Amino acid sequence: MSQTQRLLLIAPPAMTRTPAFDRAAALALAMQLPLHIVAFDYSQALAVAGLFAPEQINLAREGYLQTHQQWLAAQAGLMSLHGVEVTSEVVWVQHPYEEILHFVNEMSLALIIKDAQEESALKRVFFTPLDWQLLRDCPVPVHLVTSALNPRPRNVLAIVDVLRSEEQDLVFNDQIIDTAVKLAEQCDARLELVHVYDWTAVNTEDMGMGALPLATGIYQALGAAQHETFAALAERHSVPPDRRHFIEGAPLSGICDFAIEHRADVIVLGTVQHKGLNKLLGTTAEQILHRAPCSVLAIKPGRGLQS
Predict the structure, then answer these.
(1) Are residues 182 and 153 in contact, defined by beta-carbon separation less than 8 angstroms?
(2) 68, 82, 104, 254: which has the fewest Cβ within 10 Å?
(3) Taking the model in full, what pTM does it have?
(4) Which is nearest to 238 in space by CA: 197, 185, 181, 188?
């Protein structure tokens, strides 16, 4: 097993240079790590046809794979001209996620990079797209690229949740900030730290008008406690006061609006595994992916960017 850390770029099946190529090349240079590019090909029609004419279909498949490999190697060659240490390969496989896990087990991956793929809400309920599998289950940090206006990120946004109560969850906030700080330092980017205080957690309608003063008092106390925790967290990571942002409102819209206003290139956040209905509907992180005006870098507990 190779001990040299590297980046893994998952290229789209179509032979098209996408924003993830430029982001991967820029990060490889910034992080001073080698890059491996892999594309996954599969055709159900060819697989079925191969049952009746295996020799002809095998030739057709090998010819297509060779063409794709040559195209991918050409893209790698362009990156190498700019100083990126890069390799590439094309794999014929029906289930890409299982193959990605093989790369995770065989390589020391610092980061997986992939273009974000939009899916309809209905399809997300009945299928598990590769993006969602990576967000939920992949142990390696995942960078899903929506655009690469700035191939090397200039503005990095870290999202934390100070409502985390258990010790391992509190450590997770530290890992999120550490990852964002590391990325910002490597890319010479500006870091902003954000927590959104969800005021909808206090539902005064259910309490009745008579309980409004009590609800307001609870709301203010919770807000003050969260603000104090957020300030201590930012101080621990030496985030300057002008780059700490405590926002009141709905998390999804608050984060996305802030990202637009501050022209964020990457949102760094944490994702955890969810079961049952939550897994079907998606977490805030997955919702942000489809609403955010920029790319997303998601980490799991204990697996941030390594030094």
Answers:
(1) no
(2) 82
(3) 0.86
(4) 181
**Helix 167-187 to helix 19-31 angle, to the nearest 10 degrees?**
90
Residue in the block written with tokens 């405590």: 246
Q: Does domain 1-115 have CATH number 3.40.50.620?
A: yes
Residue 193 reports pLDDT greater than 70: yes
SS3 69: helix
pLDDT at 125: 56
CATH (one of 3.40.50.12370, 1.10.287.130, 3.90.550.10, 3.40.50.261) for 124-140+147-307: 3.40.50.12370
Euclidean distance between CA atoms 196 and 160, whole angstroms: 8
* Mean pLDDT, residues 24-46 taken together: 88
Looking at residues 6-11, what average pLDDT do you find?
97
Q: What pLDDT does 265 receive?
A: 96
Q: Are both 1-115 and 124-140+147-307 of the same fold?
A: yes
Number of continuous H segments (helices) and E segments (strands) in the chain: 12, 10
